[in-house]
Amino acid sequence: SNALISKIHVEGMTCQNCANTIEAFVKKKAGVEEVRVSLEDKEAFIIYKPNMINPTTLRDIINDMGFDATLPR
Amino acid sequence: MTGVKHEFSMEMSCEGCCNAAKRVLGKIGVDAVVTDLETKTVTVTTDASVEKLLEALNKTGKKIQYIGVKE
């Protein structure tokens, strides 16, 4: 499958549970294949199918969760 | 403040989860938000509808339950 990786910077996580919640919630979205969130690096790594979802939508989903997500410049 | 006080239970385990709820509610504009880690509740003072509050809170990915209006 022609999946891509999106790296999203996430501020506002204070414990492993926040990272786990983001992983579990984003993983359920259509087009998302894998999600790994690093609390230490404040980074979410998402493997996704570009024809189904895109990094901007992924960033908005995390923002709507109440965190401060930004795409790398 | 004419807002009504609505109370919700919310799955939360740290300050970060409380902040997430506050930020999410802040986006739809509410009068006041009080989170309590011990009782795992969020009390929101607002005129907004419960549906709107639930819609916002559900976006946090946490289990949310509407308890009712708090006197």
**Oligomeric status of the shown chains?**
heterodimer
Distance between the termini of chain A: 26 Å
- The portion of residues assigned to helices of chain A is 25-40%
Whole-number count of domains of chain A = 1
Counted by DSSP, the helix tally of chain B is 2
**Element order, helices and strands of chain A?**
EHEEHE
* Most residues in contact, chain pair and counts: A-B, 15 and 16 residues
Regarding CATH, which class of chain A? Answer: Alpha Beta
Q: How many extended strands of chain B?
A: 4
Q: Biggest sheet of chain B, strands in spatial order? A: 2-3-1-4
Number of helix segments of chain A?
2
At CATH level 2, the architecture of chain A is 2-Layer Sandwich
Q: Would you tell me the structural class of the helices and strands of chain B?
A: alpha+beta
Query: In this structure, how is the largest beta sheet of chain A organized?
Result: 4 strands, antiparallel
Q: What is the count of distinct domains of chain B?
A: 1
Which regions of chain A are unreliable across 5 or more consecutive residues at pLDDT < 50?
none
So what's the overall shape of chain A? globular
Total strand segments of chain A: 4
The profile of the biggest β sheet of chain B is: 4 strands, antiparallel
**CATH classification class of chain B:** Alpha Beta
What key phrases describe this protein's structure?
heterodimer; A: 73 residues; alpha+beta; Alpha-Beta Plaits; four-stranded antiparallel beta sheet; 2 helices; 4 strands; globular; B: 71 residues
Describe what is shown at a glance:
Helix content of chain A is 30%, strand content 33%.
Note down, in words, how this protein is organized:
The complex is a heterodimer of chains A (73) and B (71). Chain A has 73 residues and is of the alpha+beta class. Chain A has a single domain, classed as 2-Layer Sandwich (Alpha-Beta Plaits), CATH 3.30.70. Helix content of chain A is 30%, strand content 33%. Chain A is built from two helices and four strands; from the N terminus they run βαββαβ. Chain A has a four-stranded antiparallel β-sheet with strand order 2-3-1-4, covered by helices on one side. Chain A is globular and about 35 Å long. The mean pLDDT of chain A is 95. In chain B, helix 1 packs across helix 2 (50-58). Chain B has two helices and four strands. Chain B is of the alpha+beta class and 71 residues long. Chain B has helices at 15-28, 50-58; strands at 4-10, 32-36, 41-46, 64-69. Chain B is globular. The longest helix of chain B has 14 residues, at 15-28. The model of chain B has no long low-confidence stretch (mean pLDDT 93). Chain B has one domain (4-69): Alpha-Beta Plaits. In chain B, strand 2 (32-36) and strand 3 form a beta hairpin. Chain B has a four-stranded antiparallel β-sheet with strand order 2-3-1-4, covered by helices on one side. At the A-B interface, helix 1 of A face helix 1 of B.
